[in-house]
């Protein structure tokens, strides 16, 4: 008997079920990273270098894990990062993830490369909403995306700043992953071996890059690899002046996603960003770069009083969230942690994965003697 949803108790369990459910090019797109994937592994391993020191007898019958981040109070200090192509992982894609975020009253991130439109998410998702902007060479497209997010009443805009060129994602090169999927002799066998996925893809909602299709055909009607899309379509000339203008045009909660250095964190504050996501794109861009958790303390010390610092990447356990919050992050976020679950079982899978993590945070706070997030501090931590 294979692994079932009820057998999934942690991220690795969901990963194994996703591997069984997905054709191999699609699974390895989620699972893969750049070059030797050293940074991807380090993103999670970094948490192991830090130990929690609990307090006891704190009266923790009731705890409050709510935090305020990017202008919204959310019920748990962990939210769902924007990720593209979710329709490939499950027929319900972003709709399933958005509904799960709504259930847990936490931020839902929508990617520029989503398969569901800004407008539909605005209508159907009650959770706080974050839109991730990839800056394209087509300035009209960039302006349109920002204006559409205003109309749909999104709560925050996150400008991704670490994809000036595509990372060397060798798994995608080996599998031939494209958007939309391109059939090859080898991939056809994998699609045929996963008939449920194939039927959902062929007869479910049409695959498209819903927010981009009116401006570009690439990725919707013209198959293209992710690397080629980034290198051909995104604007390599984007700089601090351009980022500042985007923030001013947006006029609301403005986050820079992909900040890893203290100097860039300070500059983000200087141009008016209200939040930063300390992130290396899940290890999918510059292999050999530091893990977000490794960089967190010095960035919090530099700008934590000026903007919200979010630790993005490598989170697999509630204890990881507690460690990041103890260092000074306002919240954590992640992508693979829920994408595996989406692939495994759609909305019920995402809800189970997020629920498990929420339970771990709740249990961990009680064992730490923390009645609220404010009770967590570096006094609770020791580094090896």
Describe this structure in words.
With 384 residues, the chain is α/β, with parallel strands linked by helices. 43% of the residues lie in helices and 13% in strands. It has helices spanning 11-21, 24-31, 38-45, 93-104, 118-124, 139-151, 170-175, 185-192, 195-203, 226-233, 240-250, 262-270, 292-303, 318-327, 336-368; strands at residues 50-52, 67-69, 72-74, 78-80, 108-111, 129-133, 156-160, 253-259, 275-278, 308-312, 331-334, 381-383. The chain is globular. The mean pLDDT is 95.
Task: Set down the secondary structure blueprint.
Blueprint: H1 11-21, H2 24-31, H3 38-45, E1 50-52, E2 67-69, E3 72-74, E4 78-80, H4 93-104, E5 108-111, H5 118-124, E6 129-133, H6 139-151, E7 156-160, H7 170-175, H8 185-192, H9 195-203, H10 226-233, H11 240-250, E8 253-259, H12 262-270, E9 275-278, H13 292-303, E10 308-312, H14 318-327, E11 331-334, H15 336-368, E12 381-383
Parallel strand pairs: 4-11, 5-6, 6-7, 7-8, 8-9, 9-10, 10-11
Antiparallel strand pairs: 1-12, 2-3
Helix pairs in contact: 1-15, 4-15, 12-13, 14-15
């Amino acid at each position: 008997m294979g692994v079932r949803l009820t057998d999934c108790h942690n991220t690795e369990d969901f990963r194994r079920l996703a591997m069984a459910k997905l054709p191999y090019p699609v699974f390895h797109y989620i699972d893969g990273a750049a070059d030797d994937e050293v940074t991807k592994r380090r993103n999670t391993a970094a948490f192991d270098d830090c130990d929690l020191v609990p307090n006891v007898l704190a009266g923790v019958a009731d705890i409050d894990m709510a935090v305020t981040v990017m202008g919204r109070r959310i019920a748990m200090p962990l939210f769902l990062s924007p990720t593209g192509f979710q329709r490939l992982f499950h027929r319900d894609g972003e709709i399933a993830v958005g509904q799960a975020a709504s259930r847990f009253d936490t931020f839902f991130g929508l990617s520029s490369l989503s398969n569901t439109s800004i407008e539909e998410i605005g209508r159907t998702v009650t959770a706080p909403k974050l839109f991730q902007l990839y800056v394209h060479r087509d300035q009209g497209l960039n302006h349109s995306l920002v204006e559409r997010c205003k109309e749909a009443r999104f709560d925050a805009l996150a400008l991704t700043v670490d994809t000036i060129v595509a990372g060397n994602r060798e798994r995608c090169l080996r599998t031939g992953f494209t958007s939309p999927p391109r059939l090859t002799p080898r991939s056809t066998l994998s699609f045929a071996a996963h008939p449920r996925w194939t039927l959902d893809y062929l007869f479910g909602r049409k695959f498209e890059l819903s927010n981009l299709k009116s401006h570009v055909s690439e990725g919707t009607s013209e198959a293209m690899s992710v690397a080629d899309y980034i290198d051909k379509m995104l604007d390599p000339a984007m700089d601090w002046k351009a980022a500042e203008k985007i923030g001013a045009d947006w006029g609301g909660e403005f986050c820079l996603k992909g900040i890893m250095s203290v100097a860039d964190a300070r500059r983000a504050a200087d141009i008016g960003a209200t939040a930063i996501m300390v992130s290396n794109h899940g290890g999918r861009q510059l292999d050999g770069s530091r893990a977000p958790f490794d960089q967190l303390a010095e960035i919090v010390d530099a700008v934590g009083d000026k903007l919200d610092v979010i630790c993005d990447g490598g989170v697999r356990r509630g204890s990881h969230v507690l460690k990041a919050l103890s260092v000074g992050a306002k919240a954590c976020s992640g992508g693979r942690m829920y994408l595996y679950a989406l692939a495994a079982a759609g909305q019920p899978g995402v809800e189970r994965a997020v629920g498990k993590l929420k339970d771990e945070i709740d249990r961990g706070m009680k064992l730490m003697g923390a009645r609220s997030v404010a009770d967590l501090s570096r006094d609770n931590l020791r580094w090896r």
